[in-house]
Amino acid sequence: MELEHRSHEHPLFVYEAKKGDANLSDLCQGCEKAILGSAYKCKEQQCSFSLHKKCAELPEDFKHPLHPQHALYLFINQPYPSGCICNVCREIRNKFIYHCAYCQFDCCASCASEEERKIEHKSHKHPLDLMQRPALFHCDGCGTEGKDSSYLCTDCSFWIHRNCASLPSNVKRVDHNHPLTLSYSLSHEYSKSEVKCNICAGKVRSPYWVYRCSKCKYFAHVKCATSKTEPARK
């Protein structure tokens, strides 16, 4: 199946990107996230342009609950000279953006996606709803307070940052030889001992999430593991 999309000069073909064969350098040119699942890719061998299927099929305009007074229109090219901050997730975006010319309200492709407004997350037994307004809360994933975009369980008040909800299952750091795997709690064998983050040297607290190495006793806070912070000197 081929697609002619106004964001790209070449025809795109549909394909299925799986975790085992996904190229981490393949980023969606709509939402700027890694390509996984149904997607479109440029037919030209020398061109790496890719789009999630859901991003390729975004409507030309829609109304967001945070900005009901005007429709937002899809801009393939940014209406600003150097990117913008999404008014929903507060992240800097450089690709597709929904924009209101009257109010300068902006919504990125991820926030516009219906799929992201209610999610099933393997860290929790109930569905999570995307909060429509920023609120001060304590994240049950990383253990820090925040006012960022978030997901909330309306059944039991489980609450996590939106960024935590999209953490990768595995990360590779240049300062460690093995990949680190995301765990949603410390295993029982470590629950009664003091575990330190190998990056910042701070305490890893249960029941918060942690990245750990399955081959050695290496632990890291989720924020430390996904940052470019260098390990603290001993």
TrEMBL record:
Residues 7-56, 65-112, 122-165, 176-225 form the DC1 domain. Pfam families: C1_2 (PF03107). It comes from the Eukaryota. The keyword Repeat applies. InterPro entries: C1-like_sf, DC1, Vacuole_Formation_Reg. Keywords: Repeat. This is DC1 domain-containing protein.
